[in-house]
Design a protein that fits this description.
It contains 25 helices and 17 strands. With about 625 residues, it is α+β, with helices and mostly antiparallel strands.
Length: about 625
């Protein structure tokens, strides 16, 4: 796990590359390296690296060159199945001088070219220079677990492509400036994240997941080497024994993620996903399991006690971290700089603090990301699975409008019921996706927006699942191609790497995702039972209390904050004359949200936090 940065284009002073890697020091405090290599037409490939040593501590330094000097790579991430690929390459006559997964990338590219990419089970973003053909390849893993940001600029000396693991590194390059992308700002008001491939910075974009970019003779071509399995799921054969099939792939996914030459542990909330991973670590005979939990002082919904009980039952060395929620908002500016985006998910704050604590004891942490999006764990999956199947979109909309009418005047009604009512009240699939996790509906956004006309529309790909997909499969396809890579996975990378610790997600294993796509809907959700196959397969390893526990997540007291300690600061930040978001938002509407929430007339906590986080981010960069 590391940070990479550099550029392809006209030569420049090596100090420029040093500045870029310095901006990534937190991602790789164990070492650094830079090299500048020739390309055609007088251009160069400047490759910089910061290292967090995980595998082959002595031999894995980067940039790494192949044994014959033809290939050079800088790499961020892990190839979990590198031993199997290495053995296959050795059988073909390949030579290795290290035991690192980095060298496996070099020799795999020599043997298979871009066809090596779908063979990798891992999380990766790398830049590879081929001295023989004078080409450069930039590649990103299948689901986009590792980030890779790009900026294309035309200079007097020729075109330049600047790249890096974080936008902060790109902004140290003199050709890349912090210019706000108004279209992304507009999309954020609905989605609460920047839908890929765009970012909040004009002319900075993300290399799409499952894609590689090839630079040759000053020209760039991007190709998609992998598609989310839900796009081809209708052509896959369902497993004869789903439980045995799940256990075989899941156990292998966890086992592969135990490969490290440093101590590792796991986040443990006490819920199904994290407990499933920790119980499987014990099942596989991991010698010592360290677990970490976070909760909030005086919070009746805190999961610290249940996590501690689960740790006791499994036999882990457990650390609990109790936080005072009101202190966490002070982290927003710093974490906004790391993510180069608003911290729109309040869970980012405790995840960062838990990572800081875990980093005192381990260098690698296992986490439960992806389980809900692979196997159906959210309320939206329940609704789409059953009401979408039985009633159809027309009747679903009628039911939603009725429920919305019954709940909208009552702020005391549960959050989940209000969100479900709002989502069900629309027939359009993209509108429902906004309603489930977004801040504002598209209609509410029109009322709030006072900025210039916006022309760019979100990429259609997240909404265009395979023809004939069930409503549940369509939602899962959206999750796997937008919600995960552009929000949750980016969040997990940035929050953990800010604390110099590596996070691994067994539920995001490529082979496990492909297996999940073969399951009929009933193996994912059957009436009120979510993630049915996970519960059935792992039930013997888990206690009844874990299987019955309701999905909770990190509950931050945002509702109370905007009626208490954040009431006046939020008003000053959002309505002050120096507000950066002010020119784009209707002051009267923002004031109405603040007043209605403060008086308890409506609960606008999600919208207010999205706006508060947005303004904090804008002040850090613009």
């Amino acid at each position: 796990m590391c940070g990479i940065a550099g550029w392809i284009g006209p030569p420049a002073d090596a100090g420029r590359l040093q500045n870029m890697t310095d901006a990534l020091r937190h991602r790789g405090p164990d070492g650094e390296g830079q090299t500048i290599l020739p390309l055609s037409g007088g251009a160069v490939a400047a490759l910089g690296h910061r290292r967090l040593s995980i595998i082959d501590l002595a031999g894995g330094s980067q940039p790494m060159a192949s044994h014959d000097g033809r290939f050079t790579v800088v790499f961020n991430g892990e190839i979990y199945n590198y031993i199997e690929i290495r053995n296959e390459l050795l059988a073909r006559g390949a030579r290795f001088t290290t035991c690192s997964d980095t060298e496996v990338i070099l020799e795999a590219w020599r043997t298979w070219g871009a066809e090596c990419l779908p063979r990798f089970r891992g999380m990766f973003a790398f830049v590879l220079h081929d001295d023989l053909t004078r080409t450069v390849v930039l590649a990103r893993d299948q689901f986009g677990k590792k980030p890779l940001f790009l900026a294309e600029r035309q200079t007097a000396s020729g075109p330049v492509l600047v790249f890096g693991s974080e936008i902060a590194a790109l902004l140290t390059h003199p050709e890349v400036r912090a210019e706000l992308d108004i279209d992304t700002l507009y999309q954020y008001l609905c989605w609460r994240y920047a839908p890929g491939p765009f970012t909040f910075f004009r002319n900075i974009r993300k290399l799409p997941p499952g894609s590689c970019l090839i630079w040759r003779n000053g020209e760039m071509t991007t190709r998609r080497y992998w598609t989310a399995p839900e796009e081809t799921a209708l052509h896959r054969t369902p497993p004869a024994d789903p439980v045995a099939g799940f256990l075989a792939v899941f156990d292998e996914a966890v086992k592969l993620r135990l490969r490290a030459d440093v101590p590792l542990g796991a986040f443990l909330s006490g819920g199904l996903d994290s407990t499933a991973i920790v119980a499987t670590l014990a099942h596989l005979g991991a010698p010592e399991i360290r677990t970490f939990s976070v909760g909030f002082r005086d919070d009746p919904a805190s999961e610290l006690s249940s996590a501690a009980e689960t740790a006791r039952q499994i036999g882990t060395t457990h650390t609990s971290l109790e936080l005072v929620p009101d202190d966490l908002t002070a982290l927003l500016p710093m974490l906004s700089r790391h993510r180069a985006a608003p911290i729109a998910e309040t869970a980012d704050l405790p995840i960062y603090m838990m990572s800081v604590e875990a980093a005192k004891h381990v260098k690698v942490i296992l986490s439960g990301e992806g389980s809900d999006e692979m196997f159906g764990g959210y309320p939206k999956h329940l609704v789409e699975r059953h009401l979408g199947r039985l009633a159809g979109p027309g009747l679903l909309s009628v039911a939603g409008h009725a429920l919305l009418a019954a709940t909208s005047p009552a702020p005391a009604v549960g959050r989940r019921l209000r969100i479900a009512a709002r989502a069900m009240s629309t027939r359009r699939f993209d509108e429902r996706m906004v309603s489930w996790f977004g801040a504002l509906t598209t209609a509410e956004r029109k009322t709030l927006w006072t900025g210039p006309a916006v022309c760019r529309q979100p990429d259609a790909r997240p909404f265009s699942a395979a023809a004939g997909s069930t409503p549940l499969r369509r939602v899962l396809h959206f999750d796997q191609t937008s919600w995960l890579p552009d929000n949750l996975l980016e969040r997990m990378d940035m929050m953990t790497m800010a604390a110099s610790i590596e996070a691994r997600a067994p539920f995001m294993d490529v082979r496990l995702a492909e297996f999940a796509s073969t399951l009929p809907d009933s193996q994912r959700i059957e009436w009120g039972v979510t993630k049915r196959i996970v519960r059935e397969a792992l039930g013997p390893r888990l206690s009844k209390s874990v299987l019955a526990r309701r999905k909770n997540g990190f509950r931050m007291p945002v509702t109370e904050w905007f009626r208490g300690p954040l009431r006046d600061p939020a008003r000053e930040l959002l309505l002050g004359s120096d507000s950066i978001s002010g020119p784009y938002l209707d002051r009267a509407t923002v004031g109405l949200y603040l007043d209605e929430h403060a008086k308890g007339q409506q609960n606008h906590d999600k919208t207010l936090w999205a706006l508060f986080a947005l303004e904090t981010f804008l002040r850090e960069f613009f």
